[in-house]
From TrEMBL:
It catalyses: tRNA(His) + L-histidine + ATP = L-histidyl-tRNA(His) + AMP + diphosphate + H(+). Residues 54-410 form the Aminoacyl-transfer RNA synthetases class-II family profile domain. GO terms for biological process: histidyl-tRNA aminoacylation; mitochondrial translation. This is histidine--tRNA ligase. The lineage of its organism: Eukaryota, Metazoa, Chordata, Craniata, Vertebrata. Its EC number is 6.1.1.21. Belongs to the class-II aminoacyl-tRNA synthetase family. It is an enzyme of class 6 (ligase). InterPro entries: aa-tRNA-synth_II, aa-tRNA-synth_II/BPL/LPL, Anticodon-bd, Anticodon-bd_dom_sf, His-tRNA-ligase, HisRS-like_core, HisRS/HisZ, HisRS_anticodon. Keywords: Aminoacyl-tRNA synthetase, ATP-binding, Ligase, Nucleotide-binding, Protein biosynthesis. It comes from Coturnix japonica.
């Protein structure tokens, strides 16, 4: 359905944005001309709906805690495999991004600065990485990058699809023996999805050379290869009949050629299928396809050594519609499953994808020097949607802070004692909080600990000050014990730190 366009006044709000146009029933009252003055609305829309743009969202503390755990798992895996972190600008020159994504280039957000320079928000983290390699003349690196990317897509936020979302990328750049780095990327996907325990999954693999060879023997013109991949990439969302109709109707391909493609894209399997296709009288005679199949055979040998072939399927329907892929491509999808909590399942599509892109760096190098690259991107927002849905269904309470101890007082006029004690704890590296009141009631302080999950309370009253001790209370058991003040930090660590 066509999206409604939001209209705006050309009245700037504090130099930041514009008010949405109010309905005719609203009146915009004039205000004196002064710095920072804003229009005043009256009528049924006196409070304008200041909400995030479509396809974006705010994250509250519980969500950020869950996201932090998720990213921590991913980063831990990337580091385990020896990757170093990099960062690139959220904006790139427009011409740098265009023509790299096939039909998806229309989803790029374009910008223009005051000087007229044409910019664009990054669509992914791969093309900026290739630009970074070429600009810095780097020929060998293993990197990871976690950052937000932007796409003018039709969002389906309940299914984990957004216009602004995180990507978690791992890439290996350099000249190495065939399929060893590619196999490691698939191993990383397997490790992350297994550790997150989000359900059964399957990693589909294919090769652009096999696809291009298949298209050639089926009679697809070379000029249509890129658009064919983009269309074939829709098979995970549409049945073959609809994809076939698009190929014939919109792409102008002959029904006979498309039907020949249809026979191949139904095939999926493992080493047996690779051996079968190597004996295929037509496919085995195509040089590109044969190279791709031989590398696919080698890849499966390495995956067997890694012990992950049970979760990997060679799938001839996998295309991945991005222009820059040159060899092996892969995509991880969650399999339909019965959930444990009786809630409606969340459909999220693919949760990871990637492949080999040996020619991309050369596009940015003045001399066209190529740097072979292979990588994978983890779809963190989609995985987050599953975990968030599961958390809500189980009514699990998420602790949003890491505070170890609450500094409390039982009597009035002891603010200075609290401030001194909490300062000592902070200086000792203890995560501590206190209430921002001069004389808070002890019951309120204890209740705050129960509500927020703070495990310990350090109570300092007149008696404790006189004896040089602090009463340490366990919030869960309500047991209290006096600890010498100079030993308090060590005792908190002993109780809480593993």
């Amino acid at each position: 359905p066509e999206q409604k366009t939001r209209k705006y006044h050309r009245v700037q709000i504090n130099g930041v944005g514009y008010l949405p146009e109010p309905p005719s029933s609203c009146i915009v009252r004039a205000v004196p001309s002064r710095p920072g003055a804003v229009p005043v609305l009256s009528g049924p829309c006196a409070q304008p709906p200041f909400i995030p743009p479509q396809g974006t969202r705010d994250h509250h503390p519980a969500q950020m805690t869950l996201l932090g755990r998720l990213l921590g798992t991913v980063v831990s895996c990337f580091k385990r495999h020896g990757a170093a972190a990099i960062d690139t600008p959220v904006m790139e020159l427009r011409e740098m991004l265009m023509e790299k994504y096939g039909d998806n280039s229309k989803l790029i957000y374009e910008l223009q600065d005051q000087g007229g320079e044409l910019l664009a928000l990054r669509y992914d983290l791969t093309v900026p990485f290739a630009r970074y390699l070429a600009m810095n003349k780097i020929t060998n690196i293993k990197r990871y990058h976690i950052a937000k990317v932007y796409r003018r897509d039709s969002p389906a936020m309940t299914r984990g699809r957004y216009r602004e979302f995180y990507q978690c990328d791992f890439d290996i750049a350099g000249q190495f023996d065939p399929m060893i780095p590619d196999a490691e990327c698939l191993k990383i996907v397997h490790e992350i999805l297994s550790e997150l325990q989000i359900g059964d999954f399957l990693i589909k693999v294919n090769d652009r050379r096999i696809l291009n060879g298949m298209f050639a023997i089926c009679g697809i013109p070379e000029s249509k290869l890129v658009t064919m991949c983009s269309t074939l990439d829709k098979l995970d969302k549409m049945p073959w009949e609809e994809v076939r109709s698009e190929m014939v109707g919109e792409k102008g391909l002959s029904p006979e050629a498309v039907d020949r493609v249809g026979e191949y894209v139904q095939l999926h399997g493992g080493m047996d299928l690779i051996e079968q296709l190597l004996q295929d009288p037509k496919l085995s005679q195509n040089k590109m396809a044969k190279e791709g199949l031989e590398d696919m055979k080698l890849l499966f040998e390495y995956l067997t050594l890694f012990g992950i072939t049970g979760k990997v399927s060679f799938d001839l329907s996998l295309a991945r519609g991005l222009d820059y892929y040159t060899g092996v491509i892969y995509e991880a999808v969650l399999l339909q499953q019965q959930n444990n909590h009786g809630e409606e399942s969340v459909g999220v599509g693919s949760v990871a994808g990637g492949g080999r892109y040996d020619g991309l760096v050369g596009m940015f190098d003045p001399k066209g020097r190529k740097v072979p690259c292979v990588g994978v991107s983890i779809g963190i927002e989609r995985i987050f949607s599953i975990l968030e849905h599961r958390m809500k269904a189980s009514r699990e309470k998420v602790r949003t802070t890491e505070t170890q101890v609450m500094v409390a007082t039982p009597q009035k006029h002891l603010l200075s004692a609290r401030l001194k004690l909490i300062s000592e704890l902070w200086d000792a590296g203890i995560k501590a909080e206190m209430m921002y009141r001069k004389d808070p009631k002890l019951l309120k302080q204890l209740q705050y600990c129960e509500d927020t999950g703070i495990p310990l309370v350090a109570i300092i009253g007149e008696e404790e000050l006189k004896d040089g001790v602090v009463k340490l209370r366990d919030v869960a058991t309500r047991e209290e014990v006096n600890i010498p003040r100079e030993e308090l930090a060590a005792e908190i660590r002993r109780r809480l730190e593993p």
